[in-house]
Amino acid sequence: MEASGTESALFFLSSNKLQGALPTELGITDLLAMMKLQMNNLDGHVANSFSNMNKLEVFYLGQNSFTGDMPSTVIQLPILCYTNLHGKHFDQFTVSNNS
Fold this sequence. Notes:
Layout: E1 9-12, E2 19-21, E3 32-36, E4 41-44, E5 58-60, E6 65-66, E7 69-71, H1 72-75, E8 82-84, E9 94-96
Parallel strand pairs: 1-3, 2-4, 3-5, 4-6, 5-8, 7-9
């Protein structure tokens, strides 16, 4: 996948039995076009740093154990086309307008 003639990276770790919080540092990169982390046991919240991922087109986090609010700026990323935020514990997950 290539975005605007620059390099893009793919990050696929679905179904890997990952546990713990989603590292805030993942949101700092500006190269990721796809991030698929569904079907793990990740918990905590999605940090505001994920709002900086301007090349992100696909963001799959469903079927984890997240809590808290999803920053609305993440959902409104400029070229984000596909999200998967459903499944286990995402019924508690809401979109927040607070940055």
